[in-house]
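Q: Protein A?
A:
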Amino acid sequence: MPKRIVWTELALASEAGEGESILEHLKALDISESNTLVCTSETCREASDVPSSWRGKLLTCLTTSRVYIYESGAHTTMLASPKRKKKLTSAQKTYCKEMAAHHLRPQRIRCALARKFDTPLENLPPLQVVQNFVNHCTRSSLQNHDRVDEIRDCVHERVFTGAEALDQSFMFAWGNSDGKSVVGNGSDERPFVVGISVTGLHASGYM
């Protein structure tokens, strides 16, 4: 018969945020697709050629979203792992997605995280982590991708120059300091306002 594994409870029916906090305070680990936790601590790896016997498992109730965390075995050494890079929690990621939907910049989102979760900025993940997540979110979920650049280039290529034929169309919008048309992204802060006309309408007095 397989050897019975004795599991020690670390969290029972905890909120997702509390569960993440418990995992963050454990030694370095990897979470497999089956939600098994495996020790990846450098201190354990350097202390012995034999892999650490520590194991853990993470269970989440599909109905209540409550988290259950268990551990078994022991680490090769109790020396703390080197300080891990700070990562966004699931609650913080959800909030970042909400802010990204309003087209806020990563710097503002990071400051909003500090206020929302009552956490000093120095205790949050660095700006680059927030930038990477927000950029991934906007590209995959909000369709903020290269097509925006293509549309902007299209507008800039078709601005009015005065050399157009009477039946040739051109585009116009508010201009910036470089004389280029401002092409927004459709948000309240940066609306997408572009006009299309032809020289013939101007010549006939319709514009």
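Q: Protein B?
A:
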Amino acid sequence: MESKEVVKLLGFWASPFPFRVEWALRLKGVEYEYIEEDLFNKSALLLELNPVHKKVPVLIHGDKVIPESFVILEYIDETWKQFPLLPQDPYGRAMARFWAKFAEEKFWMNAWRALCTEGEDKEMHLREAVESLQKIEQELSKGNCKFFGGESIGYLDIALGVIS
């Protein structure tokens, strides 16, 4: 049964992570209200809704609050059944989650550290970020599919789309 509760998304224009959530909501045809946050001057609303990480994105669905983009993507997929994002088979779901986590830990963390460091540390993190992208590209090109997860856009396309 499709949920009719009000949906809101807290995001920040310069953060790539709320885009994941927006793409998933749009693919599923879910109407939502976007609330722009200033991460340099965090609102009381953001601090109340995400007191652990104090960052965006945060999805509000009725009286439920869901933080973290990957967690939100899975919530959206389980709540609105039309246009499934995750593969239907357990192995496909596991691999989609694995590569999304790999990109988060290996690419994003190294890319961020490369921006925040100098000298040899910067070079090392930059090299590791590029190597992780090459590994992702190598692995995902094995399938000869139109999209990462098959013949239609899905979870992994959304998770990695902010890289491209």
